[in-house]
Design brief:
With 429 residues, the protein is an alpha/beta fold. The protein is 30% helix and 16% strand. It has a domain at 16-156 and 274-427: Alkaline Phosphatase, subunit A.
């Protein structure tokens, strides 16, 4: 069986020439420093406080061949068909029928090469845009988004991770930006831990407790104020505000019909919670779906796992478009790497970082676009290769962050993104 939409065919949607031609037609703008992947009126200024990022992290390494870059009928293709999408000429795996109908809202990067097959190092690269080194630690994109997009006076945290297990707490993913911008974990999608006041403490008693704490803080800080004491003060104040706004994190407050639409399983609840959080002004939400490390029985696992992902994710995209939030929200579906084109003797696919895919959409990215391509068997990138650093620049630029700028930390200038890299549109200029 010949794959008619593989790289080089007339139906392959967005070859380099066609992608570039969008800039002339107006489908892709070159405005506001956002480059060739941006869309919208050239004169419109991006209001950072209105921008949001939602990352779907497919832990373990989602197979690009069973999702965004299928190769049916080839030696490496596996058993699944490719199906048409809402974008003429674009096909994705048959495991994603609902997402296929939302592809006109999304943008597909099929030429990713990060050259790192280690889980931890690959995950670090994809979330920070840098290679891991003993010499420095870098903040993850959620911390950068919270720092650059969330208003300083916001009463809500800017960096939320919805994790599938039951634990909560805070992450250590903000590096030199400090704990103010580190993630708050919502274990199994539940509200933050310890934000419910014990029944025995009345409103008046709580008011008096907080008043006493603030007076004590002010007395202690007189002549002793440092960046560290400010962090402690901020943490207490944020905890107090979280207790007052605990319902923001309670997905059961959503209408019953919405809960049913997303599905009552964990991932469905988590997607609905992500929508609820960004609607209430939180700048960054990460939703996890795992574990895609399919060294064994790759096809059975993806049949089940991708099937669970498909409908809630597609519902999330459709909801954002319907509610007018997609122009202000960047959606990213990523992993630490992809899976090998070769199928091993256990019917699994191993780690593969040399030719895989990332899905994104919304904000200022061109809708319905495909950038990059792999060869007929998916073994290498043959058009417009990009890496983790370029993707990191591109995500942030798409929500209006100037990634050529630096943070000022303790008198030092620390680049927001890898200064040796640039956004993806420079690769196709």
């Amino acid at each position: 069986m010949k794959c008619p939409y593989a790289c080089g065919s007339t139906e392959h949607l967005m070859a380099r020439r066609k992608f570039l031609s969008l800039s002339a037609s107006g489908a892709v703008g070159v405005a506001g420093g956002l480059g060739l992947l941006t869309r919208g009126a050239a004169a419109e200024q991006v209001q950072q406080k209105q921008q949001r990022i939602v990352v779907f992290n497919m832990h373990g390494g989602l197979s690009q061949l069973e999702s965004w870059d299928p190769k049916p009928g080839t030696r490496t293709g596996g058993p699944f068909r490719a199906i048409p999408t809402s974008v003429p000429g674009l096909h994705i795996s048959e495991l994603l029928p609902y997402t296929a109908q939302q592809m006109h809202h999304l943008c597909l990067f099929r030429g990713v090469n990060t050259s790192e097959d280690d889980h931890g190092k690959g995950a670090y690269m994809m979330m920070t845009g840098r290679r891991q080194t003993p010499a420095a630690d870098y903040p993850e994109i959620g911390a950068v988004a919270a720092k650059t997009l969330m208003p300083e006076d916001s009463s809500l945290p800017g960096h939320i991770r919805v994790v599938p297990h039951g634990g909560g707490g805070r992450g250590s993913d903000a590096a030199y930006l400090g704990p103010k911008y580190s993630s708050i974990h919502l274990g199994n999608g539940n509200p933050p831990q310890y934000t419910k006041r014990p029944d025995g403490i009345t409103d008046e008693a709580e008011r008096r407790r907080q008043e006493f704490r603030r007076k004590s803080d002010r007395r202690f800080l007189d002549g002793r104020r440092t960046a560290m004491t400010d962090v402690f003060t901020y943490s207490f104040e944020q905890a107090d505000r979280l207790m007052e706004q605990r319902d923001v994190f309670d997905v059961t407050k959503e209408p019953t019909q919405d809960q049913e639409k997303y599905g009552t399983h964990d991932f469905g609840r988590h997607c609905l919670l992500a929508r609820r959080l960004i609607e209430r002004g939180i700048s960054f939400v990460q939703v996890s779906h795992s574990n895609y490390d399919t060294h064994n029985e790759n096809f059975d696992f993806h049949l089940e796992q991708v099937g669970e992902f498909d409908r809630p994710f597609a519902t999330f995209v459709a909801d954002l478009a319907e509610r007018g939030l997609l122009d202000q929200t960047l959606i990213v579906v990523l992993s630490e790497f992809g899976r090998t084109p070769n199928i091993n003797l256990y019917l699994g696919r191993d780690h593969w970082s040399k030719a895989w895919s990332v899905l994104a959409g919304g904000a200022k990215l061109a809708r319905g676009a495909v950038l990059g391509a792999t060869n007929a068997e998916g073994t290498e990138v043959v058009d417009i290769q990009v890496d983790h650093a370029q993707l990191f620049h591109t995500y942030l630029q798409a929500v209006g962050v100037d990634t050529s700028a630096s943070f000022q930390i303790d008198g030092r200038e620390l680049p927001i993104a890898d200064p040796s890299a640039e956004p993806i549109w420079t690769a196709i200029a």
